[in-house]
């Protein structure tokens, strides 16, 4: 019934001359559309992941559908090695690589402001490290000027963090960066959601769909290769390493964020300012989160450097590695800072850690962090769409 109503609305709009022409596809988008037409005729990989069931609900692939499906793809590589039309076949079907190229394009298309998205995509690793180093140097100079000499950088400070940077100063430095990242990412995701919702039935969210999507996000369900054995990385051998490293990174980041949130509650609600000692909750959460984040990002760096070029978009490596590097630097500098409390190494380590954290949050809306948000939105829309009648195969639902 919903499909009939949609067709009726489209026919009425067409008769009134109200149909807005579809935006032209980029070369990467046109290539994905070409390959999906071939996949739709074959359907050998239909049970591999969420992409292929979503594909079978479509006969054509406009831009919004392509953006939705590109972010639904987890780049596991299973379909590439199962495909009879993969290179060197003349059809040259490589869904993981083609999807990765469009997915990278969406990070730029939906970035706010767009210029920052393009800059980070081209120079992600260099920009990330340069920004972290620049911010750390700025903080070092602030400490030197405040302490009236370079010797202050190699002195133990009994006052801890706040002996170097008062609490209100840290808030004034980090609050604008955090709010900027939240605003920029929120505006981009809102546009993405508005574009893909009509392309995925337009039906509203439901509790079962939300629960299913949350389960897929939290368990990284589609990084199992569709058979539970994991993703291909260097060759066609399956490994669960990508899934495990993503889990360590994802939950490590959440634990670190939880530690900061709990410390904020301690400070403002309980009147207990930092630093904290074991076994306080902020210390436990931060330690476990930092260790998990360091291990996860080290594993992802190794996997990324060794990944076969057919499994992804080589042009995105600077962006991928920039995000991984900032996460690793944030985690390891935080752990080192924890170990160096009360020592002469505290000032330099604190500046390095704060610079890495500020650089991380400043670049969050423009790098691989955004893919987690866009992918979650796509999984949610997929969970909604699959519960609607199939518009091209009503008898199968």
UniProtKB/TrEMBL annotation:
Gene3D superfamilies (alphabetical): Transmembrane di-heme cytochromes, Chain C
UniProt keywords, alphabetically: Membrane, Transmembrane, Transmembrane helix
InterPro entries: Citrate_utilization_prot_B, NarG-like_sf
Bilayer-crossing regions: 125-145, 165-187, 248-269, 281-301, 321-340, 346-366
Presence of keyword Transcription: no
The protein's name: Tricarballylate utilization 4Fe-4S protein TcuB
